[in-house]
DNA sequence: ATGAAAGCGCTAACAG
DNA sequence: CTGTTAGCGCTTTCAT
């Protein structure tokens, strides 16, 4: 079943059939219709492979997730996939699992398949070395960024997000703010903590990205004076909240708590529901996709593109209340 | 940069170059090497599109996730992607978002691109109508299954998993078991509940797939007598545990609790960590991929392939203890 | 308005 | 052992 068969069925040449099917050239309306009818009748589906070979574009992009696909990559991927799909692009999925060998293998596969471009995503916001030097197709890094400043990366403004969280806590009257977050060596923990530090009543507590650590940190803080917690993640926030409430502190009346990530399952299951900083990963993925599409169309936008985070307010910081201490 | 350039650089014909690069035909070792050197020197990457057009296989499969990619599709996808990658297959990602229009659009895209096969995944274990009748390529359904029994589906044995959970609770001496689960109309809730019912001390409590519902159900149960809870999901289990503990019941001493899904972030964050039923979604994805590869190679295995669930035991059912009631 | 023909990059059958 | 050639299915000049 090729365009030959359609042409034969419609009694025209393949060239004419091609024009009819693609709305090109100048054809009599009647002819066009006749070809289309024949195509429908035969259930003809044009072979994209052949077209690709002819026109030189595959309308395909590769998506490499450096670390394994996790909670962060998903919204990124979906946003990107959706935006690319709107541009008629298909997405080849490559899960590199944090393995440089796999990454290079996938890269070669993608180049061999002549993708029009590549988006690289991953969990770690930290800058990473470029995929490879001098790639023949545009690459955009989403969430992860490249150490080469000439590469196109789109990243969340984590420092800005942290600042918004702090400002919000201050706006509801809190003055004694503490910060509990992930591992000190983790770039996101560092960036968020640095942005918060000027407003903190004590040095940040670094630990793990887990609820258990949140609970532990909460316990450690019980004999200190504070009226707000900015947590480096929703999981940590939830752990903190649990401990505080078990110890009789009211949230948000006694202590307001705000998390980071706005991970639905965490923020809604927490009691009370958590205010949080949303990095808009879906939008990030979309933005990355659009930058890639632009680059493919010859309008690259090199450099780091920083996108704002958004505050999502829920009960855990709901009550402005009075300033309770000091 | 085509094979022509390589041939020219090596001083051979394109045919010879092709053979050298693909280890076909009979060539002098020296010639073969000369061609390879030229290819390396020029950084030649064979054009997979052209090869595809010639040999008729794309070594690409489509992966359609019916509902949006979520917690369940991810391990499925990754398992499948990994297994397919081992077979040199690339994966085209299609997120249909529960929209039949999108699904059909993607299906056409995939057919147009001449994928060698399609895997369909999704969150709902419930059977769904086939993608389309008489597809020219093999399709396998993973987790979701097709209503057409002739289609190839691979699904978890949810009833068996529920039975294992119940047996485990009985094995540690529990006799008054209750079941709290998701919406009654949800196929997974039904299947799991049906398997549990003979062993239950009261009718199942149907509600939602949320922690909040688990808490609520826990509260409703407080004035009943029971020594074990089989929850339809880890989230529900966690909610139940929280309520029980707040009310002074010890888990697992007074009430053993087991969940379903073995969702790491839930089972580990719960206090105590939750025993759970694991559907081995990664293995499911792998199995689906292998069935698809087999079908592509002319050895289809039609029908429903049921895979066992696995019990993962943690503290929430850790203590055998004495039978406390009855 | 339509048809004929060249060619995208590669492989494979057939000559030499 | 190596070169020549004929396509894979489609698009696109260029004639007619």
UniProtKB/TrEMBL annotation, chains A, B:
UniProt keyword annotations, A-Z: DNA-binding, Transcription, Transcription regulation
PROSITE patterns: HTH_LACI_1, HTH_LACI_2
HTH lacI-type domain mapped to chain residues: 1-55
SMART domains reported for this sequence: HTH_LACI
Keyword check for Nucleotidyltransferase: no
UniProt key word Transcription: yes
Tree of life domain: Bacteria
GO function terms (MF aspect): DNA binding
Protein name, UniProt field: LacI family DNA-binding transcriptional regulator
């Amino acid at each position: 079943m090729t365009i030959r068969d359609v042409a034969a069925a419609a009694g025209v040449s393949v060239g004419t059939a091609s024009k009819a099917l693609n709305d090109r050239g100048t054809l009599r309306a009647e002819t066009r219709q006749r070809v289309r009818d024949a195509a429908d009748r035969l259930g003809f589906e044009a072979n994209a492979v052949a077209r690709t070979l002819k026109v030189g574009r595959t309308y395909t992009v590769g998506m490499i997730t450096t670390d394994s696909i996790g909670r962060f990559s998903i919204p990124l991927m979906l946003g990107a996939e959706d935006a690319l799909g709107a541009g008629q692009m298909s997405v080849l999925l490559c899960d590199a699992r944090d393995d440089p060998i796999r990454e290079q293998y996938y890269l070669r596969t993608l180049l061999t398949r002549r993708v029009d471009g590549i988006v690289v995503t991953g969990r770690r916001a930290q800058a990473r070395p470029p995929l490879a030097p001098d790639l023949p197709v545009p690459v955009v890094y989403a969430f992860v960024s490249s150490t080469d400043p000439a590469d196109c990366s789109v990243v969340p403004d984590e420092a800005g997000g942290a600042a918004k969280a702090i400002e919000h806590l201050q706006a509801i009257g809190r003055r004694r703010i503490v910060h509990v977050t992930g591992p000190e060596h983790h770039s996101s923990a560092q960036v968020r903590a640095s942005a918060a530090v000027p407003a903190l009543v004590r040095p940040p507590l670094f630990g793990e990205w887990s609820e258990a650590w949140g609970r532990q940190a909460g316990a450690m803080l019980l004999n200190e004076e504070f009226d707000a917690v900015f947590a480096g993640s929703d999981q940590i926030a939830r752990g903190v909240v649990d401990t505080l409430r078990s110890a009789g502190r009211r949230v948000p009346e006694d202590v307001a708590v705000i998390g980071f990530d706005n991970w639905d399952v965490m923020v809604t299951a927490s009691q009370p529901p958590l205010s949080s900083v949303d990095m808009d990963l879906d939008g990030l993925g979309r933005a990355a996709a659009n930058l890639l599409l632009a680059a493919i169309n010859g309008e690259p936008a090199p450099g780091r593109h920083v996108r704002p985070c958004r505050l999502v307010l829920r009960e855990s910081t709901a009550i402005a209340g009075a300033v309770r201490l000091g």
